[in-house]
Amino acid sequence: MWCLLQVVLLRNRDRLSLLWPPVFDHLSAIIRGKGVDGNLVAAAAVGLLRLCQRLLPCKPEAAEPLLRGLQLVPNLDPEVAWINAEVIAAEMLALVQAASPHIKAQWAWASACNLIKMTSVRPEAFPVSLEALRWVVNNNLTPLNYVLALEASVWFIERAALEHPKSKERCLSLLGRLTAWLEGWAASLAGAGLSPEQLLTFSNAKSEFWLYLVEMLAKLAEHPDLQVRSAATARLQQAAVAAEGLGVLPGSVERGLRERLLPPLELLSKKVSSKGASKDMPQAEVTVSELVRVVSKALLLQLPQLVTQPGFPTLWLAVLSSLSAAAASGNEALSDAAAAALQNLLIMLHDMGVLQPGWSDSQHNLWQHTWHVAHKISSNLNPQMLSPHVNPARQQAIAAGGLQSLPQLPHQPPQIAMQQQQQQPYAGNIPSPVDAAAAVAGTEADGAVPVQQQAAA
After folding, report:
1. Pairing with 183, which of 104, 245, 246, 375 sits 20 to 30 Å away (CA)?
2. 247's torsion region: left (phi>0), alpha (psi -120 to 50) or beta?
């Protein structure tokens, strides 16, 4: 009977608006019904996905009612869903390959990503589900699905590190594409003749996307697997450098540093100094060194904009606290890295006229507090170092037009015994980038902005 329904719908595409509502109700009753034969339920779910594959490319105007069917599949009986996970995963791969350009609603992308993640729970279905996600990330990222694809990628990376080590590198490669897409999308907006309202919309959207990217990468930087952490910090460095070119708002950069980057830096620094940290977090000192480099580079690039922000004193106190934690980790290379990073920042703040006697906010004498912390990190860090006559290194830095580079820890090959623990999906709600993306998509739908889909990976 179900095969007959498919044939009728496919042969009467011009009457789809009339035929689909009763068919949808029939499918819903089968999938959600209790006591229905599992084979019939599975056939209905698979058939629904196949109809979307066939009808969306030729009936894009019917996308919304067709894609509502994706919301039925998660209602499958758990046992039926588990048994048929591989088949459903294969159908989702075929669906995104055939019809992803026609998925233009955010709720539909949320349903699709949810199904891809749901099927990946079964080990045999994981590789196919991963291919479906990789297709979306590599071929059809849009402002509507960027946040959803990023969150799904983190889900797959965490599962791969724990349960599918052979797929780990393929999962980690998604981070490079997601980072590069954001840069390419922002570049495609340049010179598009935007109105002031559109400029504000896109500026907010870019900033929110960047913030969420940094948040997800910082989350992975705390992962027990060194390979995952190293991939995350490499992309964090790329994101830090790209922030200026993207036009990320200074307030968003400040939040990214204060709320996303500095907390894991301080946390991991304390892990390095604690006993037994090598078991839970192998080579944590390598990740701390990389995070010090990321934070230092982001600050040096963005200081002229950051010092104008009302929250800069709070940010600076957090920077001092994090670098102090790194220096106090008991690792000599980390102490040197923290001292070098702070020296560069102190010189730049002084040259900008910020780090001067009397610098304070409503609660702190920032001049005194800065030098108090700096001296604890290194005895060579004191106000006299700002004078080129007293500090030869300062004189050389000025003459060369640059700042002292940060020392780099040797990157040892990881030797990790993965703990067999329950892996939980990312439980957070999709944040404000989704709302920004909806506004962006509405603007692009009006034809105001040509958004390029590609970015060099």
Report:
1. 104
2. left
DSSP-assigned letters across all residues of 384-415: GGGSTTT-HHHHHHHHHTS-PPPP----PPP-
CB-CB contact of 453 with 182 (8 Å): no
The mean per-residue pLDDT over the stretch 50-55 comes to: 88
Tokens of 129: 């589900």
- Say whether 8 sits in a helix, a strand or coil: helix
3-class DSSP assignment, residue 268: helix
Lowest mean pLDDT among 132-141, 252-261, 264-273, 417-426: 417-426
HEC states along 107-169? HHHHHHHHHHHHHHCCHHHHHHHHHHHHHHHHHCCCCCCHHHHHHHHHHHHHHHHHHCHHHHH
Residue 2 confidence (pLDDT): 57
Q: Are 303 and 289 in contact (CB under 8 A)?
A: no
Amino acid (one-letter) located at 94: A
Q: Which residues contact 417 (CB under 8 A, 6 or more apart)?
A: 279
pLDDT tens sequence across 200-243: 888 899 999 999 999 999 999 999 999 999 999 999 999 999 99
Q: Output 271 or 446, whichever has higher pLDDT.
A: 271
Q: Other C-beta atoms within 10 Å of 421: how many?
A: 8
Q: How far apart are CA 153 and CA 182, in angstroms?
A: 15
Take residue 254 and report the two structure tokens written for it: 């400040």
| pLDDT (0 to 100) of residue 285 | 92
Q: Which is it for the CA torsion 259, 260, 262, 268, positive or negative? A: positive
